[in-house]
Specification:
By secondary structure, the protein is α/β, with parallel strands linked by helices. It has 10 helices and 8 strands. The two termini are 24 Å apart.
Length: 269
Amino acid sequence: MKIFGILNVTEDSFSDGGKYFEFENSIQKGIELIHEGADVIDIGAQSSNINCKLISPELEWERIEKQIKYFQSQKIEISVDTYKPRVIQKCIKAKVDYINNINSFYTKESLDILQEYKNELPYLILMFSHNQGDKASQNSNLDRNSIVDTIFKFFDFKIQELLKIGIPEEKLIFDPGMGLFLGEDPYLSIKVLQEIKTFKSKLGKIMVSVSRKSFIGNLLGGVPPENREVGTLACELFLYSNQIEYIRTHNVKQLKDAIHITEILLSHF
């Protein structure tokens, strides 16, 4: 399993917007995440928060370019959380290890870039969201009974689309989405988590990010992001117990400590 430590170089992310906006703060946070046990730093400069402000590709790249270079100089694996074609292209040229895309490279421009660089691509993380838009949204037509089939149909289409332009399937990682990327109903996310073994068996490599998501807050009575840590950990340990390959989280230390104790409890000594 690989843990992706979240580093938001944003002003308006739902959980920690503004905290690591300055370069020095972002570097310090990234180093902290690695010391806590993160395998990959997942850097994002464009929030996908429901109320976020959209920024230009030029500004997005300006906010993360120095961080990428610094962490690469320290031999740290880098993921970039972006969906803008021009930023995707710059990430490929910069030789990042992963590109984490909330709308699964849906634009023609993005697909053209992937095709052009198909022999030098990083791993591509394709996330499902109900609107395939630039941000999360509450207005979802998904329902609990059909959500799993809907996500499978979407990923089947994406696999075929990418194979046709020469993208090797081994480069693909699938994220079924969580929280408002699925919809306001918290049980949409719960249904996906309950079927996560099926996703793994049918799709292969799976990434899930439950960290501080809205569905946890809703299930706990409407608590804010800072009070969702225990619910987050419960979901992350569930993912760990189901051998999910990639977990993306804000609180790396919490997850690593919980896994450590779980492994001790399951050991024979």
